[in-house]
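Second opinion, please. Please look over this fold, written as tokens:

===
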Amino acid sequence: MTRRTDHSAAIDTILRTKLDTRWGQVVPTSDSVNLSNGGVWLKAVYLYTDMADSSGLAKKHTATTAAQIVRAFLAAVTRVIRDNKGEIRSYDGDRVMAIFIGDGAASVAAKTALEIKWAVDELVRPSLSYRLNEYLKSSWVLSSRTGIDMGDALIVRAGVRNNNDLVSIGDAPNIAAKLSELHLARTIITDRMWNAMSYSTCYSRIDGKAMWSIASTKDIGGGRVEQIRTSNYGIQID
């Protein structure tokens, strides 16, 4: 059998195999989803946090310094997500994807995003300036962008044996990822999120002002237009 025949047969097998899906109550792991035909539906909130201007990081720093910065950034983001019971299911370079489910998931995810903003600005940046002389002398400043959306998503395993990963299919993961790429603010959410969030994640506990601004509707690709809200607030981690 030639490689071409082998690959064609594998693709044909996938397309002929009907997915066996179910609704889930927990965020699945790779070993809980069948590689051949498994799928899990979730009502979930998806959060993507991305390092802003990672291309600038590579241009302004040596590889070893850039690696230390990325590691510090991801450590901070991951810890905040984990503290808020988010389930991390993907790392893509300097971007993290997390899933939140259950009652109040929208509020928890929004709080997580605002804490990430604070942690990057008030914990990671000062440490970089103190520990890394190269960063201190550079014009590049560490920043983050987070996008969040909520909705139904189908999680499947894709790839081949020993080389596969979970993939989320649906509007929520796609839109959240797109929002994290916009250069409008540090955190961007959809109106669906705003309507599902609690008072404490919508308004500042200090002065009672809204922590989010209504942005004009935005085409986020493929003709998809969304009403979004933006925020540059941060919530201090106790």
Summary: The chain is about 40% helix and 30% strand. The mean pLDDT is 95. The longest helix spans residues 105-131.
